[in-house]
Amino acid sequence: MYFTEFLKLxxxxxxxxxxxxxxxxxxxxxxxxxxxxxxxxxxxxxYPSLAQTFLVQLLVYEHLxxxxxxxxxxxxDEIAFKDKPAMGPTFIHLYDNLSGSHYVGRILMEIxxxxxxxxxxxxxxxxxVPQLDEKRYWVEEHFLVEFLALQxxxxxxxxxxxxxxxxxxxxxQSNFIECYLKSYDFKKNQNLSFNLKCFRNETPYKAIxxxxxxxxxxxxxxSDIFLQELVDFVKYEIEAFKMFQxxxxxxxxxxxxxxxxxxxxxxxxxxxxxxxxRFEHTGFRDPTTWDMNRLIxxxxxxxxxxxxx
Length: 309
What we know:
By secondary structure, the chain is an alpha+beta fold.
């Protein structure tokens, strides 16, 4: 398990972790605006176990005391593949414990697990490791994301006549657009609060725009594109087969032949896709652990389906 960097303007900090019955902490990063720990945490335990939650806490030295600024929970049963918890390398994003909308920073980390033949010593080890190079796994591109705030209902705004709306993604902040609030036209016999307001935007709409550098993972999902194409093809053929059944209601042998032809066409498409490696990673970067597990699952599932058929 790797802990590498934390991106936020702080002075003194360290990471504390807990996984029952293990607990420990990284080295203290001092006098830096971008702490880098580059430490590996190793421990042995029986899986599955009653303990499934791995807790990561960020502690910052402020006002002559250590303060837990943010924490993040990882559940091993949710990231396990074939009984082996694994994740990343990837960033986990942290938000302030007291203010959930306040972004604190992000941690680059990786989780790996392996089966041991002998019963190991139940102890925790913390060692220094080389820095993870995230450029091996993804490339960041500039994205422009647009949102339209068309309407809002049942807003609690007693004396306000307008409101401002924006979008926030981690450390990225969009522009603000102003919306003018209106009161509902309630009848006297309706038991509703008169503090509730609404807004309706009309053309020309003002867009909320967010510009950010984000990992471009589109090349990793060629298999998903193929699967969507396959699903669309099956839906189209099934609808056509239903029309064929209505038109030739009593010709059961012909219906069986048509249905068999549809099934064989789908199987052949899957076989050709497997031969052309459309289920494999086609990106320009190294696959992460999650990428490899996901592709193994897809390939095993469809290959076994073809063999069964």
